[in-house]
Amino acid sequence: MNKSAYIYIVAFGLLLFLCLIYANHFDNGFYFDDGHTITNNENVQSIKLYEFFTDPATFSTLPANQSYRPVTTLMNAIDYQLAGSKYDSFYYHRTIFFFYILQLILTYFLFRGIMNIAWKHEWNTWIALFATAYYGFHTVNAETINYIIARSDGFATLCTIATLLMYQYRPTRRSFLYLLPLIVGIYTKQTGVMTAPLLLLYIAFFEEKITWEELKKFNKTKIGNILKKSLPAIIIAFGLIVVNQLIITETTSINVTVTKFQYFITQLYVTAYYYTAFLVPIHLSADPDFKLITNVLDNRVILGLCVHLLMAYLSFRWFKNMKTRPISFGILWYYIALAPTSSFAPLYQMANDHRLYFPIVGLCLAVTWFIALILLENQGKIKRNPKRKYAIVSVAALIICLYGYGTFKRNIVWGNLEKLWEDVTIKSPNNARGWLNYGHAFLKKGENKKALAAFNHSHGIDPNYNTLHINMAVAKGNLSYPKSEIEQHFKRAVELKPDHISYYYFGKFIIENYKERKEEGFQLVKKAYEISPTNIGIKKYYENLQIEMLSTSEERIEVYLKRVAANPNAQDYILLSHEYYALKKYEKTVQSAQKAVNLDPSKKFAYNNMCIAYCQLNKWKKAVNQCNKALKLDPQFKLAKNNLKWAKDGLAGKYNEK
């Protein structure tokens, strides 16, 4: 068997192992920001190319999070259609993982190309394969692969690697095709703009091979060539980002309560901490609890500064020798890729482990090439002693297995809402949002006492958290606390942050508990809808409220008929059947309910409505049949049980038949 066959066999084996490692993640759910960008965002329920590329509001239902990421929104919409017009996380994870594998394939060729420029050697094929596997199995990446909306990080990184690789390949360079993935990457996530400086660095390091002496003497020819070759990418990248951010995007994700300087000195520590997450990823958290550092003399700031100065020195030192340049390039890749989230633009979260997905491409290259140089310089000893070769292969396999095991375990954590947020409370115990979401996991299971305990813990950390007060109100409502106490939580939530979530839940509480205040509740829900008109839950509730506020059944029927004509759906047909029943139009009640079950046979209320309509028509056999269908779907359906008794009594002759 020739040497090239071995590389294919090992590469295929690694691919199978990667698929095995990630096999337990495909059914992991939608979490965190997936709500306002996917599952509650009606924009992804249809493919609207023009709207996606002209309106940033299509990305999210939250006004503050409406970033311009049209390609990400398009991918979410496509997966929604592939799933059969429903939110099935399997289809989203399947697409994300496919592009992950594609990214790894391209990464291998990019790494091998860089290594061959630095020191062409027969071992580079294996070294590049290990570097790619090191990245592919790395535990940190599980934070991005499992987090569906973080697909923007993954696909933008794929586009960056594709741009550099296509620039390496002369035909796609001459035709400027390498600029296409650059553009797509920027439209996926703003971090894609950093492809341009990375390309410039690649040209300077490996194309023009500029030396330190040439830089000191400002060699116009070399520097001119570097700028000339990189200028198309720079103009397009920064031109697009200016247009996208300053003209198209009206909102901003910048945290105006934090100064740029305070954020920057905090990032000095955070970006140094990321090195530990890269090397030993045992404290990964879906929501880290890093706090803002305000004192420039803080020990953490000084530590971070020392780390970065050391890395700058090493990068400069390794830049001077062509053989060590991949290490320097990898280190600089790390800092360039982190710049959008870890410099002077204050984001609401000080740190996020999924932000490492793009930067550690460079670190995997740097670390691997550093080790490879030691091996290459001692190749004679290795070749003479087979035991050393087997030892090296064994260590490489062990590294891959350890990171792979960590990835497998992180997939498990991400596989369960309760486990995920319990993990956050352990890793990030001072994170109020972590405790809130941990409590919310209990709330969804109906374990209200446990939920309230977690909420109280969160309240002790941050008593001025509006979403927390909403959840505390819901938990206390389920535990039959006094309505006055529950209402105070809703009022406090509105005071702290008068957003669509606060208005919606407060309005819903008023409507469901105080009939005499229904108009007040309706106005609160209306405010929520006006703030976030594309939120599926709010929109549906508001539209139904509008109908309920109408004074007659005739008016409501007219609205429902228009809605089913525009969008036939089971729920509206069920509501239509309710109104016909109220008007004693029993035949039309049956017709509307039948249309509902034709669209969705799982609607128990549709069968129940047919049952009571048939009862009114004294068609007892048909009534019994329909009630049995309702009870087959839900044996504890009390309304259907009562109506079934009515139907059976009628069938037994207890009522006069027509």
Textual characterization of the structure:
The chain has helices spanning 3-21, 34-39, 49-54, 70-82, 89-118, 124-136, 142-145, 151-168, 170-174, 179-188, 195-207, 212-216, 220-248, 260-279, 299-319, 325-338, 360-377, 379-384, 386-414, 417-427, 432-445, 448-461, 466-478, 483-496, 500-513, 518-531, 536-548, 553-566, 570-582, 586-599, 604-616, 620-633, 638-651. The mean pLDDT is 92. The protein folds into two domains: 3-412, no CATH class; 550-658, Serine Threonine Protein Phosphatase 5, Tetratricopeptide repeat, CATH 1.25.40. The protein is built from 33 helices and no strands. With 658 residues, the chain is an all-alpha fold.
Radius of gyration: 30 Å
Count of discrete structural domains = 2
Structural class: mainly alpha
Could you give the count of β-strands? 0
Low-confidence stretches: none
Anisotropy-based shape = elongated
N/C terminus separation = 89 Å
Subunit arrangement of the protein: single chain
DSSP helical segment count? 33
Relative strand content:
under 5%
> If you average the pLDDT, what whole number results?
92
What's the helical proportion of residues?
A: over 70%
How would a crystallographer describe the biggest sheet?
Answer: none
Question: Which key terms come to mind for this protein?
Answer:
mainly alpha, Serine Threonine Protein Phosphatase 5, Tetratricopeptide repeat, 33 helices, 658 residues
Would you summarize the structure shown here?
The chain has 658 residues and is mainly α.
